[in-house]
Every structure is written in C-alpha cells, then in structure tokens.
Amino acid sequence: MAKDDGTGTLTAGVIAALRQAKSVFVLTGSGVSAESGLPTFRGVGGLWRTHRVEELASPEGFARDPVLVWTWYNERRAAHERAQPNAGHFAIAQLEDALDDFTLATQNVDSLHLRAGSRNVLELHGSLREARCTNCNAGRPFGAAGLPLDEIDHACGGRWRPDIVWFGESLPRDVWQKAQEAAARADVILVVGTSAVVYPAAALATNYNRSAFVAEINPEATPISNRVACALRGSAAEMLPRIVAALSARRTAPPDLSVGPSG
Ligand SMILES: [Zn+2]
C-alpha cells in the first residue's frame, strides 16, 4: 500500500470529486468563524460565566428576562460586526461562483458567509440581523448597535426577540426543506467546521452518504468521521483555499501542448 501522507492524498480525493460534481452542498458550523475571531458559542462574552445557557438562549429564559437576553445578543451582534470573513468563507463563495448548482447551509447566525459573497445561503438557525415579534410574527431588522433595550415591547403586546433558533425550538421549516432537497441532489457534500452532533443538521451529513461523496473538514474527529468518504483534519481557512485553488488552476490551465514527439 502506497504511503499516504494523511492529508495530500485525501485532499486530492475531494478535489477529484468536486471536479466531476454537478451539484454541491456545503454545511458549515461555528468552526468556520473561529478564525474570524468569533469564539464558539460558549466562548463569547462574560454572561456565560454567570448565567446558564437556558437563561440566554431559550424561549423560557427570554420570557423571564428579555433585557438580559438582548444585552447578550447585542454584544454578540457587535462582535459579528467587528469580525471579518476569513479565507474559509471566501473559498466557499469562490466555489459557488464556479458551480451552477451550489447550496450553502449554515448553522451560524453571524452573516459572515453573506459578507464574503456567498449568495445561495440557507441560514438554518436564523440570523442576528433581524428581530421577530413573539406575538404577531412581524419582522424588524436591526443594525450593528443591536436592538435598543427600551424598544423590546411591540405595539401589539408581544416582544421583539432575535430571529434565531433557540434551544428546544425547531428549525424554520422552509429553510430545512430546501437544505434537504439540496443535499439530496448533491454529488458532493462538504461538512465544514461543525461537530455535527446537533440534530437535525447532523442528519444532512450522513443521510446522503450513499448518493453523494461526503467529506468532512474539521480540526478534530467528530461523531460522523467514520461515516463519511473522507475526513480532512484541518481548519476551513487552511484547507478550503487549497482545494479551491487546485480546482480553479485546472479550469484555467492552458491546453496541453505536449502532444507529438517527446521533447
Ligand atoms: Zn407584534
């Protein structure tokens, strides 16, 4: 058996699969944003140290103390605004440019994929750009400063809450449906920077490993590592630009002129 350097050969496998793919589906999680300086969920801000997850990211916690919850999300929104998309985000946007049928589904609410130029983005957990009324379901965008804490109450009697998916809540049905359809028709599925333990997003990664070439890109092994065709150990910012560069080099390479007498 040929010696495998552990990375180069596996990367070549993903590149070969992408080269032939007509339809590509990418699922990303918080690992993609880690190199933009956005720590994963629990790493952000001081409130995690003094409050339980359920107090900050659940409908019950919001009902109890909406000002606390908005203080937390306004801080996160400000952190998103300060962060910049990294090489991983840009590589995913470039991949979309090179393909006719490309879908990105993300568990992130930080908008960095959109800022990097991705267009067909399904935000499975919503986004921190908009608030939604708990009563009448109206929507209201908010900017870098977040939602003013004295405007949490809506005129209808409800309250503005972040339009994101909290613990104990379901994914938005239409978005989830589109993600499933895209995964079902994909030839290649990339699962990037997510531990893929959160159902139902995790299901996207493994339900289609017979119809698609599924590759995982993550610094550490995850529960799906042994159910995918290829597990690349590394960060998105490190691995994806390499893969996309190899793909575009092939596409723009001059025609092979070596035909004829050897020389
Ligand atoms: Zn309302």
Please sum up the structure shown:
The chain is an alpha/beta fold and 263 residues long.
Give an overview of the whole structure.
- This protein has 263 residues and is of the alpha/beta class.
- It folds into two domains: 1-38 and 85-125 and 171-250, Rossmann fold (3-Layer(aba) Sandwich), CATH 3.40.50.1220; 40-82 and 131-164, SIR2/SIRT2 'Small Domain'.
- It is built from eleven helices and nine strands.
- The chain has helices at 8-20, 31-34, 47-50, 53-56, 59-64, 66-82, 87-97, 112-115, 173-185, 201-206, 236-252, and strands at 23-28, 101-106, 121-123, 126-133, 139-141, 160-164, 188-192, 213-218, 230-233.
- A six-stranded parallel beta sheet has the order 3-2-1-7-8-9, sandwiched between helices. Strands 5-4-6 form a three-stranded antiparallel beta sheet, with helices on one face.
- Strand 7, helix 10 and strand 8 form a beta-alpha-beta unit.
- Helix 1 (8-20) crosses helix 11 (236-252) and helix 7 (87-97) packs parallel to helix 11.
- The longest helix has 17 residues, at 66-82.
- The model is unreliable at 1-6 (pLDDT under 50).
- The site of zinc ion has 7 residues, from loops.
- Zinc ion is lined by residues 133, 135-136, 138, 154, 156, 158.
Strand and helix layout:
Blueprint: H1 8-20, E1 23-28, H2 31-34, H3 47-50, H4 53-56, H5 59-64, H6 66-82, H7 87-97, E2 101-106, H8 112-115, E3 121-123, E4 126-133, E5 139-141, E6 160-164, H9 173-185, E7 188-192, H10 201-206, E8 213-218, E9 230-233, H11 236-252
Parallel strand pairs: 1-2, 1-7, 2-3, 7-8, 8-9
Antiparallel strand pairs: 4-5, 4-6
Helix pairs in contact: 1-11, 7-11
The structure holds zinc ion (ZN).
Residues 133, 135-136, 138, 154, 156, 158 line the site of zinc ion.
